[in-house]
């Protein structure tokens, strides 16, 4: 399949062809003519299947072609009499889809299913018939790509069809391979449809199918789909780009001269390599022109160097950087660190004698095959293989890659088709993926796992990817050993430790939605925030706690209420539940008082809390409260402490370490901006025992730079930090 610049109205490429895997367009025309003559056998195979068989045997010399002949006969007989909008017999479509996959090296089972992929949808053939004649594997693939009926699903048919395909792809990636080839052939013949329908199909292709092709590593399909969509949705830009390519086609090619020098250099170094000039497809040319403001002849393509062994890739790189002037900023090593879609290659750029910059790709022949065909090049991922027979450098097929696992996870919790459709497009719009290493797994799970997340994901996204709904209790994180806010954007290779609240009464803050990029996180947060009051507990829903250490965390004087793990106080109001106020976080043996609030709840404050005076001034009547006797000894509690210090680097980390050393958990934390070299930290802490509060405060005061630690709501002995 061609990834060159091609005219959607005329599939023949403009410009150079060397070094680019492409679909045999003449082969498509031959099988179309053969299909018009019916299924007359030749040497035991229908004439229309001859070219497919030849291409398939090129990739799989020992392939059993009888099953393909059998599938073609069923497809041709069931589609007989059906015509495409272009006027061709309908059988030409499954034949074309099968040839596309055969050119990319798909194995026999995939080709069999591609020949039958429309039979269940458009003819009287049933899935039971397919299973009986071709087995459960082919039946599963055919069912995976079969559309849902509009009569049953109405406007939701399209999103629900894609949901069904994604679920099927989660078990067998070949389902999406067939769908991508199906869409490519439909896009090639889209000119017979009305312009508005062309635009609608092109937009879905752009938003969903092209990103899926990228994620499955099928670059050959992705490149041609991009050009076809480009021509439909941006005809003026497409025409201008096509003219530029045509104008440069008759000029001397600067890349050809550089390629000749590279061949000579590698021959002298006794490195066996194939050096090709690889043209860019139209969308790639357009992007380069937009980024650089113009084009040179060297911008219309790249050099491709193919070698046999992985080690030869680095040998080629050394020779190029020795004998040419390299552009250091262009170097990327995707062999040592492959992309999430299987792509492996070395990228560099060198300068020619006349100053032209030639972008260069260095890879093995196996890497090149995978770069073009992605998961299709890996054959049947479910066939038994022996480890020693696996070629060096060939990676195992990711039948459930990280991005697909994320899609499957959140689609299960998104019954609404419109929400699913918009979330799917948003997720697929995020092109890049990063890997972070997360420590501290949930009980019973592995302690350390790697998480695949979209580029730009935050600690919030990582929390929901790691813990699911349990991430509601996340209160902070450490990134690469340093305390970080949940809003912190993660980068590839980061080490992450998520801090979880000791009880399940906490939940996400509305601000978390601003930091979440993944649909799974956004949907989970939205569900929690929109739940009815009193859900699950029969009591009013508590105010969402804040993430640590964010600027929105509870500070002194904030009247938000916090429910501890164990209720330490009782009120002199029959039937009332008790909450400890977050503004002063009372603990035994503080003198306390209470005030009744909505829902029959009594909020407990320290007697000296400023909120008590304000509520009394408004005429609110206090309610008597007292500590349970067991509270002095063994119950956990929460307390808010203010640490006032001179501003210095790493103060937050040192204070947190001192708190952790006392066996105390940080529920939330806030740091005010420094003022006159002084800074104030506010911590809400969970103590296993209230008796440990004095020793905790002493430990915090011993941290260098800290000149006072006091309870929230208490009159300060020091000057205020703010005028």
Contiguous low-pLDDT stretches (5 residues minimum) are 1-23, 36-40, 385-399, 441-447, 533-567, 630-634, 714-723
Percent of residues in β-strands:
15-25%
- How confident overall, as mean pLDDT? 78
Give Rg in angstroms.
Answer: 33 Å
User: What is the makeup of the main sheet?
Assistant: 6 strands, mixed
How many DSSP E strands? 26
The end-to-end distance, rounded to whole angstroms, is 71 Å
Describe the structure.
Residues 1-23, 36-40, 385-399, 441-447, 533-567, 630-634 and 714-723 have low confidence and may be disordered. It is built from 26 helices and 26 strands. 45% of the residues are buried. Strand 19 and strand 20 (601-606) form a beta hairpin. The radius of gyration is 33 Å and the shape is globular. Helix 1 packs antiparallel against helix 4, helix 4 (92-103) packs across helix 11 and helix 10 packs across helix 19. The strands form seven sheets. Strands 5, 6, 7, 8, 9 and 10 form a six-stranded mixed beta sheet that branches. Helices cover 40% and strands 18% of the residues. It is of the alpha+beta class and 723 residues long.
